[in-house]
Amino acid sequence: MDALGLLRIKVIKGFNLAVRDKISGTSDPYVVISTAGQKVKTRFVKKNCNPEWNDELTLPIKDLNAPITLTVFDKDTFSDDDAMGTAVIDIQPYVEAVRLRKSLGELPNGVALQKLQPSGTNDLADESSIILEDGRITQKMRLKLNDVESGQVLIQVECVDIPGSKGLDPDY
């Protein structure tokens, strides 16, 4: 296998998503996450601009520099689904924290390895912390959607090693 590992993305919920169904005044949103020619998607939630998905999606990581794009769509029955905004999931700080963790030794449970602030170079809507919890490193991100009048999506990312793969360790 040529994957470095698996990226598990839990798509938790959406906030203030755009209205695309004018008759009902809501939307039927779902999320598509894509990278390097691969796509995974959540189920759609009927008539809800603040949906809770709690869907876990998994993508193989083949290139740490390939952009990971999150796109929200409105499910339509009789026409093409409507776009409801996009955001880029920047996993570089997460990858750095995973690599750094190996050199830090024993750390207490719940420690923040890194905190990231929203800026012009990321799509974060709020501060995001990379946390060590029960031996796992996770990062929750509240992403602001671009190319749309409103909307944010809360996700959590975690890398899962594949036995026999290089993983995120450059010294493998």
Order of helices and strands: EEEEEEHEEEE
How many strands? Answer: 10
Straight-line N-to-C gap: 15 Å
The outline comes out as globular
Give the mean pLDDT. 91
Percent helix among the residues?
Answer: under 10%
* Class computed from helices, strands and strand pairing: mainly beta
The total of helices stands at: 1
Range of strand content: 35-45%
Model description:
Helices cover 8% and strands 45% of the residues. The protein is mainly β and 172 residues long. Strands 4-1-10-9-8-7 form a 6-stranded antiparallel beta sheet, covered by helices on one side. A 4-stranded antiparallel beta sheet has the order 3-2-5-6, with no helix packed on it. β8 (128-133) and β9 form a beta hairpin. The longest helix has 13 residues, at 92-104.
Brief rundown of the structure:
The protein is mainly beta.
Primary descriptors:
172 residues, mainly beta, 6-stranded antiparallel sheet, 4-stranded antiparallel sheet, 10 strands, 45% strand
Give the SSE layout.
Elements: E1 5-15, E2 29-35, E3 38-41, E4 52-61, E5 68-74, E6 82-89, H1 92-104, E7 111-116, E8 128-133, E9 136-144, E10 152-160
Antiparallel strand pairs: 1-4, 1-10, 2-3, 2-5, 5-6, 7-8, 8-9, 9-10
